[in-house]
Amino acid sequence: MPAAGFGLWNTVAVQSHTGPLLDALSAAVGHPVERSSLVSSGADHLPSAFAVTDLAVASIANAAGAARRVAALAGGSPSAPITVDRRLASIWFGVTFDPIGWTSPPVWDSIAGVYPCGDSFVRLHTNAPHHKAAALRALDCEEDRGAVTNAVASWDPLDLEAAVVAEGGVASALRTRHEWVLHPQGAALQSEPLVHHHQHVAERLTDLPVTSRRPLGGVRVLDLTRVLAGPVATRLLAGLGADVLRIDPPAWDEAGVAAEVNLGKRCARLDLRDDQDRAIFEQRLREADVLLHGYRRDALARLGYDEGARRRINPSLVDVSLNAWGHSGPWRDRRGFDSIVQIAAGVAHHGMVAYGLDAPKPLPVQALDHATGYTLASCALHGWADRVEHGEASTWRTSLAAHAELLWPTADGAHLEVGFAPLGDPDLARGQESTSWGPVRRARPPLSIGGVGFAWPNGSADHGTSPPTWRN
Questions:
Q1: For residue 310, what are the CA distances in angstroms to 256, 281, 319, 472?
Q2: What per-residue string of b and e applies to 417-456 under the rule 16 or more CB within 10 Å gives b?
Q3: Is 122 helix (H, G, I), strand (E, B) or coil?
Q4: Residue 21 has pLDDT above 50, yes or no
């Protein structure tokens, strides 16, 4: 048997942090992965003050273990070998496609980013128009990076953070790890599990239209998520055969990441303040097997769809959600994104110190989003398996901030100066994928599971390009 905290990684020597990370992730969803069946190939590392590639491998392997469990329900092997490629895992934590004849829109808004503020720094997240407007109201300046820089400089960081949040925006002052642990939200996080899980009685399923090769074939996933963790989860579920219907409000846009995360999905729009659209939504919710949502903790409740209402509409639902800051504490209803959590929770400060810089150093990819996404996928897969095996519906919750806590045992500085080549031809699958924006070549999947096929039914689609109906 492998030593505690480590797996038998048959291609390369055990990576120092992959095993313990996989232990933590698989224990959180209640199904430890048998690491003796895993192969971790390659020796790549993303350059970082933390073991980001180890986190990528562990979180993807955890989701693979859950997929293997679902495949076993349709006759697949419960001990089928799982292989995770370290380089491809790192790539799938970033950008996975190469556009052909077109240019992908920028990921960040023109005034988003880190600014000197008083004697420290503040990060503004302004990708959404209403978040940008909130920041500009708080700063009382025009939409110009120079004007924003000058306005931010005169503020106290904590005061500006509070002012932007009070206007309905998203911002965070730079904090050290020590400051975060002492902060009321950081302190609340220390007592939360990585994953909250509750079971409910549901009707036992029969005659499932699934095969071990496409283990989620026929499973309907209703996707109410936004950048970036939730869409990563439903992208994987689509690759395993799920019928994923993504619903966005009429004006919502994620132009900078849609081609990345909408792979394999149908993308529709509904206005949940409109009675007719609410009726359509409730019918889709009634028909869904899995609901995955990533709005703020109280957002659906304010629309009349709190957990009790969702469960009344569909008692058999596998209900999976994430929150930025956790599910207790004073920030539990606060807006947040990966880059903001990194600033608040001490991650960017530690990177700055480790690299000897005079400005915050974030992770090389949005690793909190991606790791959380694969945890969400694991929850959905195990929830579906529980539904099939035991007739149990379930509720699952996790957060970006909880996943940030996983990084700290890996902060040994072992990969500060390693090299990592950009996405290149050897990383890409054969053939082209058609998207709403033009053709692309997509990176090969980062994992394989014996007997399970990864394939997406369509290329990435823009928001609102499908009616709010299932594929089948």
A1: 31, 11, 9, 23
A2: eeebeebeeebbeeeebebebebbbbbbbbbbbebbbbeb
A3: strand
A4: yes
CB count in 10 Å sphere of residue 203: 10
Residue 194 belongs to a domain:
yes
| CA 126/CA 108 separation, integer angstroms | 8
Give a yes or no: residue 11 inside a domain. no
Structural element, H or E, at residue 286: helix 275-287
Residues 6+ apart with CB under 8 A from 104: 256, 259, 437
Task: Say if CB 380 and CB 233 are below 8 A apart.
Answer: yes
Q: State percent of the chain over pLDDT 90.
A: 85
User: Quick check: 224 and 292 in contact, CB under 8 A?
Assistant: yes
Q: Give the type of residue at 302.
A: R
CB 242 within 8 A of CB 66: no
Section 170-192 average pLDDT: 97
Residue 73 preceded by cis peptide, ω within 30? no
Q: For 106-113, which contacts have Cβ atoms below 8 Å and span 24 or more sequence positions? A: 106/256, 107/256, 107/257, 108/256, 110/143, 110/145, 111/135, 111/143, 111/144, 111/145, 111/148
- How many C-beta neighbours within 10 Å does residue 77 have? 15
Token reading at 42? 């390659």
Question: Is position 260 within any domain?
Answer: yes
Q: What is the DSSP letter of 372?
A: H
Give the residue numbers spanning the domain of 359: 104-427+458-472
CA angle 381, 382, 383 (to 5 degrees): 90
Encoded tokens for 179: 């400051």
Residue 8 in this model has a pLDDT that exceeds 50: no
- Write down how long the chain is: 472
Phi, psi of 320 (to 5 degrees): -125, 130
Place of tokens 């990576």: 15
Give residue-wise pLDDT tens across range 423-440.
999 999 999 999 999 999
Number of independent structural domains in the chain = 1
Are residues 265 and 247 in contact, defined by beta-carbon separation less than 8 angstroms? no
Residue at 52 is within a domain: no
Nearest-angstrom CA–CA distance, 40 and 47 = 19
Over residues 47-84, the pLDDT tens digits come to: 999 999 999 999 999 999 999 999 999 899 998 999 99
Q: What's the token pair of residue 412?
A: 């040994």
Q: Of 458, 465, 459, 457, give the one whose Cα is nearest residue 217.
A: 457
pLDDT in tens, 29-49: 999 997 777 788 888 999 999
**Domain CATH number, residue 193:** 3.40.50.10540
Contact 378, 194 (CB under 8 A): no
CA-based nearest residue to 318, from 407, 414, 216, 173: 216
CA distance 190 to 325: 12
